[in-house]
Amino acid sequence: MRTAIAAALMLAAAAVPAVAQPEAAPAMAESLTVSGGSSGGSARSMSNDWLIPARGYQLGTSLSYAMSDGGFGDRGLKFSDVAFLRLDGRVVVGGKAEIFGGIDLLPKQPTFTDDSVFEGAHVGARVKLKKWLAADVRVDEGSLMSGLGLYGSAQAGLFARRVMHESLVFQGSIGGSWSPMRFDAGNNAWFAEVATAGDVVLRLPEGWAAFWVGFGFAFPVAHHGDVPGVGAIDPQVRSDFRLGSVYSVVKSWDVYVEYTIIDRGDDAAPRTVLPILDGGFDQKQLTFGIARHFARTAKVDHSDDAYQLSRARREGRDAALAAR
Which of 13, 21, 181, 232 lies at 20 to 30 Å from 220 by C-alpha? Predict the structure, then answer.
């Protein structure tokens, strides 16, 4: 029932008429975007009206520090105990779709985790359905903690945005995910969730910067299987929070920061958490990121530019002499 209510609220918000806004070209019309939180889009899209830029591609990197009071195995994580290095890229196809992908590395971890340096990878796409509506799909694959095995995730959903004013934006998403875990010991487990999220975005003019606060809920709808040494998984309702900002004054560069509170189960109930270092248990993440945008512009023939300039100057001199 709560899932149905949440879905109805998100769809209703997307249908609310917005203040009429002109179709805005990307602020960096000949460049592109960055990496971004739960919306599935880029950080630069937060400071602009568009969901998908007109053209271009981007390479970005970010460093995320994970902190936790408890954690899997009832151990805490202090600031700088765990650092994720994320490398990602995005490319626009025909101004209607954006394909993205990336890898996550683990250059810093505590001794008790014994995780692989290669933490995971993802690939996905966002397709524009309307100016204010897009469909997102994403597939992830990663390593379980302490070499227990591998996990995956397949997600799909809808994302909607309403520009109420040049300085105020409401946006939200609704979707579902299926996440299997394959343990080297031979066990398999999986769970499925329906998730909804929303952001309030405050923006500066001309797409220079944006500040956002976001909320998310995930409702487990089905699950099966055991975690070795723990027992049958028992996923719970999750509630996440995020606070972020992006600086996009420089046309080819973005700098952004985001603070995220990830809710996953209860440390005192091991069956409600997951053996995943990146978001498998209650934790906070502080992320610092940059992105470089590259242009895809049409070639222009400049072969007669010197002739045209010389002609204009000559015509200007003739006009000045005639006026004397």
Answer: 13
